[in-house]
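FORM 7B: Structural annotation worksheet

SECTION A. Query
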Amino acid sequence: MDIVKPDQGNRQRKVVHIDMDAFYASVEQRDNPDLRGKPVAVGGSEARGVVAAASYEARNFGVHSAMPSVTAKRKCPDLIFVKPRFDVYKAVSLQIREIFAEYTPMIEPLSLDEAYLDVTENLKGMDIATEIAQEIRAKIKAATGLNASAGISYNKFLAKMASDLNKPNGQAVITPKNGQAFVERLPVKKFHGVGPATAEKMHRLGIETGADLKGRSLDFLIEHFGKSGPYFYGIARGIDDRQVKPDRVRKSVGAEDTFMVDIHSFDPAREGIQPLIEKVWAYCDANEISAKTVTLKVKYANFTQITRSKTTAISFGSLTDLEEAVTPLLQAIFPVTRGIRLLGVTLSSLERREVEREPPQLRLFV
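SECTION B. Predicted structure
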């Protein structure tokens, strides 16, 4: 089907960010009625386990993703741990993308549970992006039984920020008229793309809000934040020219975690890095991407850091392949003379993976 193209000219972009609500935990609650209405954490319950996702009932107790399991259990003694089922999450994700494809081919997945959609020109010929978002959320609910939230705006940054405003099971719009004012009021620590370390650096520089960020010159931001400077300069003014890129292969995909207690031995390090391995592989698997290079990042208690990489002749074909590549890299750094405060896993040399397609009548949009 061709895209319906209403009036061209100077048209304002319409970007929708769809974000599934507590995705992994909601799938588990959907599939097991005994878990509904109860605090659920997806992840390992072992002493050095980590929460991969938490239901909203668990979040009410302060439980969140990347939290050590022992901390989560202390906050919520009745917390129920469920082992992750990434094959199921991927299958549901593909169902959701099939719905997206009814509206636009301009789909940029960020992970299994969220994506940007450019609906400026769309397959339904609909003019109002909020109505598109409402329809998509209703279809996701009907097809999967799961709730999704949405943000609608004129660029990716603001659409992403808007999707958090009325969670769970809601949506919000940030218009060109109120975009700048919204950003100015927002604490920089809540900006998408500003992690804890960057937020702390901004605070040391006296930058607490979007208005403070807007008050700094481009030269100042480049001096202190390098290549990210122009991006921060733009979003402080509600400007983000990044396009929704449906077919992009990222240069790399990575995940990292800072531990509340420094790690000194291999077993807890291996336990702590497992969710990171699963997270990066789930992204690759969902997007039919593979990689030939894996890099381990280690940051010690004194903030010094090292990286160790391995490149293979053949792309990693499974989660097990990736685990078998990461484990020796991790083993090689032990014994350590100081505690480890952060571990990270990054895949690079990414390429599209050749996959065997199902018959056309069964084929899901990928």
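SECTION C. Observations
Confidence is low (pLDDT under 50) at residues 1-9, 355-366. DSSP finds 13 helices and 14 strands in the chain.

SECTION D. Sign-off
Analyst initials: ____
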